[in-house]
Design brief:
- Helix content is 40%, strand content 15%.
- By secondary structure, the chain is of the alpha/beta class.
- β7 (179-184), α8 and β8 (209-214) form a beta-alpha-beta unit.
- The longest helix is centred in the last third of the chain and has 15 residues, at 227-241.
């Protein structure tokens, strides 16, 4: 029976960002899926609770719990799903922290300044992408990556992340599955120091928790040159700490 791996993308992205990772995991015997976020209901964009429920329903439809792998907001969702007893293990790459408080405001304030309403979308500029998301890429690589992968994101999600709405996690939950936190050493959107602080909070739990920083990588660590190192480390960790599911 194949092992399942469920990939969850973050803000600004679509599931296509995971295609290289999925090929890597499939080659190691995983059955992979990367469902998109749920669609808007009419003109109303989904919030964190709706996105979480969407992935929970997918997990419950499987014949066995999957390995959960998420980036950015997807990494936050991985933490929340594990906290709810879902998944065999979780890998969160440059994850947003739950109930981020002042940190959340610091990370998202630029998106909160204009009141554009729950129903609207935010558009990332090529300049912001080049400077804060993928600064380790060449200008040509940045242009290609931006055109292929970047899409508008629900404004509502940024507000909920900043204010700690619908994204609580019990850091002392000793019943959750193993969790691996990965950070890009040069990441700016979610800095490595933020992920390290998140690791210390999760250490309140007796459950397996590990942290690994990759020097020189940006927030684009799942798709920038050298992404194979990230994927292979993730696969090896899952095999060592979870075994065959």
């Amino acid at each position: 029976m194949p092992r399942h791996a469920l990939f969850i993308h973050g803000n600004w992205l679509t599931p296509t960002i995971w295609e290289p990772f999925q090929r890597r995991f499939c080659a190691c015997g995983y059955s992979c899926a990367a469902p998109p976020w749920p669609p808007a209901q009419g003109s109303r964009q989904p919030g964190i609770a709706a996105i979480l429920a969407h992935y929970e329903a997918h997990i419950r439809s499987l014949d066995q719990p999957p390995l959960l792998i998420g980036h950015d907001l997807g990494g936050l969702l991985v933490q929340m799903l594990l906290d709810r007893g879902l998944g065999q293990a979780g890998i969160a790459l440059d994850p947003l922290p739950p109930r981020a408080g002042l940190l959340g405001l610091y990370s998202t304030w630029r998106w909160l300044l204009p009141w554009i309403g729950w129903r609207d979308l935010l558009h990332m500029t090529p300049h912001y992408f080049a400077r804060n998301m993928a600064q380790t890429l060449t200008p040509t690589q940045q242009n290609i990556a931006y055109a292929r992968h970047i899409v508008p994101a629900p404004w509502r999600v940024f507000v909920e992340t900043a204010l700690g709405i619908a994204n609580a996690v019990d850091f002392a939950n000793g019943e959750r599955a193993p969790l691996l936190l990965l950070a890009g050493g040069n990441a700016r959107a979610v800095r490595a120091s933020v992920v390290a602080a998140l690791y210390r909070r999760h250490r309140r739990s007796s459950a397996i928790t590990r942290f690994k920083q990759f020097p020189g990588y940006s927030h684009w660590l799942i798709a920038e040159p050298g992404w194979e190192r990230i994927a292979d480390y993730s696969i090896e960790w899952a095999q060592n700490h979870v075994g065959r599911f």
